[in-house]
């Protein structure tokens, strides 16, 4: 009864998700105490945003595999909203603290004093950030339409089509995060840092979500097959 009351009251769902993101962000910050403040906050908030998206993505297939988890589906709305808000803060920290409001640096260019112009130095950084920007814009659309008023305004068909784009947001986020966890700090002209501890937990998180999606799709496919392999005759 207690769990049902939480799920059915919107402000209680918001409170649960806020407490979750505060606790998770705090743990991420604590785990990287030796990093500079900018990178600690940048990664902690970005990683927590990905975790919230992952939980939201996992709830759908879980509900198809275990019917008792259907009651938690309403949390997907709050998880998605706060994931986008965290991603916005993450992007702001990068803009101000990392590239120092120089949008050319955001897409991999650096100013060359000898040539007196910008030159491309970090191709991967540019691509990863463009993917991140696309994910943020797409996430903003999902968050802004994730309410009953938008459902009534757009109609069920259009609204559902937009919200199914959460899969696009998820894989864009995975690509963006994967680059910074595994590739960005391997440039030959820089000292290679110690491996980020989050690399393999990230792989495990993506693997769990993918496994749930595959398992749920398999169950749905088996249930939709005609019995005995016979196609029903049309009348």
SSE blueprint:
Elements: H1 2-8, H2 10-31, H3 37-65, H4 75-98, H5 103-106, E1 109-112, E2 117-120, H6 123-144, H7 148-154, H8 156-163, H9 166-182, H10 199-224
Antiparallel strand pairs: 1-2
Helix pairs in contact: 1-2, 2-3, 2-4, 3-4, 3-9, 3-10, 4-6, 6-9, 7-8
Low-pLDDT runs of 5+ residues are: none
Number of strands: 2
Tell me the strand percentage band. under 5%
The averaged pLDDT comes out at: 88
Secondary-structure element string: HHHHHEEHHHHH
Our count of helices gives: 10
Which percent bin holds the helix content?
A: over 70%
What's the main sheet like?
2 strands, antiparallel
Structural category: mainly alpha
Alpha-carbon Rg, integer: 21 Å
What does this protein structure show overall?
This protein is mainly α. 71% of the residues lie in helices and 3% in strands. The protein has ten helices and two strands; from the N terminus they run H-H-H-H-H-E-E-H-H-H-H-H. It has helices spanning 2-8, 10-31, 37-65, 75-98, 103-106, 123-144, 148-154, 156-163, 166-182, 199-224, and strands at 109-112, 117-120. A two-stranded antiparallel ribbon has the order 1-2. Helix 2 (10-31) packs parallel to helix 4 and helix 4 runs antiparallel to helix 6. The longest helix is centred in the N-terminal third of the chain and has 29 residues, at 37-65. The N and C termini lie far apart (47 Å). The mean pLDDT is 88.
